Amino acid sequence: MLNEREIESCYLGQFIPVHYHHNMLMDQNRMNAFQGAIAHAVRPGMKVLELGGGTGVLSYFAAQQADKVYCVEFNPDLVKEARRFLAMNPNGHKVEVIHADAFDYLPPEPVDVVICEMIHVAMLREKQVAVIEAFKQRYLARFGGPLPIFMPEAVVMAVQPLQQDYGFHGYYAPIVQFQDTGVAYPGTIELARPAVYSVLDFAEPVDSLIAWSGSFTVEQDGSLNALRFVTKNVLSIVEEQGSTIDWLNHYMTLPLARALDVVAGDVVEVAFQYRAGGSIPSLQASIRAALAVDAPNEVPARAMRTVEFA
């Protein structure tokens, strides 16, 4: 019988279908960013660990420089796929594909770089934070410091108020949407600039609780009926150039249960909290938004209207 963590892992993505991982191989944005970051971070002679290896492609990138790569994957179908693919590729013999749970695995020797791509927008659903924090504790207890370099090195998250069209051929359906970052969608109107609400630095202890309260100054009239969540993964810091190699997840747009009419100059206050690895509804349920009160002793009718998720 599965224990509670195993049940949650199955639900939250440990057993993402194999074809989904195949689609990730065709995601040029993701592939280009990781290939460049791994080529920068991994040097000849290094030992590398990948937690959640999927098809093995990131371990393959690492094997072009590293002496040894440990690729840990929990899904038995993907273990077979990774072993099969790596056997077809140059330096694939440097990668040892291990069927194990990333929550528990510890390599037999110290490693220089840990690659972990269990990333969902806003750090929801998948267990990136929990896996890395548990690994740090095991690693320090076994090998002492210093910790290896983690990839991504950091994650920057932002939120932005939108007016979003939820009409589909005349059918109104306010749904959660994932949008490509390089595409202009005519039904999406940005009402204010994004605000950064969290920065996770994996070289430091990371708290799984993510909480934020802040405000936006509306830049154009509209109907605030959605929030866009933006997640930028800082895969590698290029210190010699003062730059970073980044990977931007798809935007996630969450509909509001009730729209808030706004005009340019309005200040909208927003607050929410959730745990990394939690569900999208857990974030939705926590969100509160309202027009800011204009004066201490005067509460306009519009300022009393709040927006909450269903």
TrEMBL record:
Signal peptide: none
Molecular-function GO terms, alphabetical: histone methyltransferase activity; protein-arginine N-methyltransferase activity
Record-linked InterPro entries: Arg_MeTrfase, Methyltransf_25, SAM-dependent_MTases_sf
GO terms classed as biological process: methylation
rRNA-binding among keywords: no
Keywords tagged on the record: Methyltransferase, Transferase
Pfam families listed in its UniProt record: Methyltransf_25
Keyword Electron transport: no
Ranges of residues in domain Methyltransferase: 48-133
Record protein name field: Methyltransferase domain-containing protein
